[in-house]
Design a protein that fits this description.
Length: 155
């Protein structure tokens, strides 16, 4: 798979700085991925995010997008903004939708999914052969984002 340019992954508040890419690892059922730092326009890192390209049973439970915001920078909707930018990158790869999941106890992440325009699908049990299960997680809230309607994102 080819990785596409990321120079356009910015808005008037943040930009995504490419950290690295990773090729697929079929033996682990890992998809190709981009890894970014979320940065304010002055270059200050406020968090991180990643985008996994494609869909399989692991992305349904683990999501296509992951993110985290440094505690001192929380509350500014940076994660929702980063998701919007990642939706753009996913679209370059022909993806019609992405999945984002979160721990049912993580209200902030669920709110990010709401703000980013996701449709809640279900809270699913994590299979015992999934890495998340080995980390002690047992359930994941599953959110679907249609990339055809990302202009409706509320920030």
């Amino acid at each position: 798979m080819a990785f596409y340019p990321v120079d356009d992954l910015k808005d008037d508040v943040i930009f995504l700085r490419l950290n690295h890419t990773a090729d697929a690892r079929p033996e682990k059922r890992w998809l190709p991925a981009y890894y970014f730092d979320i940065c304010q326009m002055d270059g200050t890192k406020v968090g991180y995010c990643d985008l996994r390209i494609g869909h399989n049973e692991k992305t349904y439970i683990g999501g296509n997008i992951g993110y985290g915001i440094i505690e001192a920078h929380r509350g500014h909707r940076y994660a929702a903004r980063a998701c919007r930018l990642l939706f753009r990158q996913a679209g370059k790869h022909g993806m019609e939708y992405v999945i984002i999941t979160c721990d049912p106890d993580n209200r902030a992440s669920a709110r990010t999914c709401e703000l980013a325009g996701g449709t809640y699908l279900e809270t699913a049990s994590i299979p015992p052969d999934n890495e998340m299960y080995l980390e002690g997680k047992r359930e994941a809230m599953i959110w679907k984002f249609s990339l055809a309607v990302d202009e409706h994102i509320r920030l």
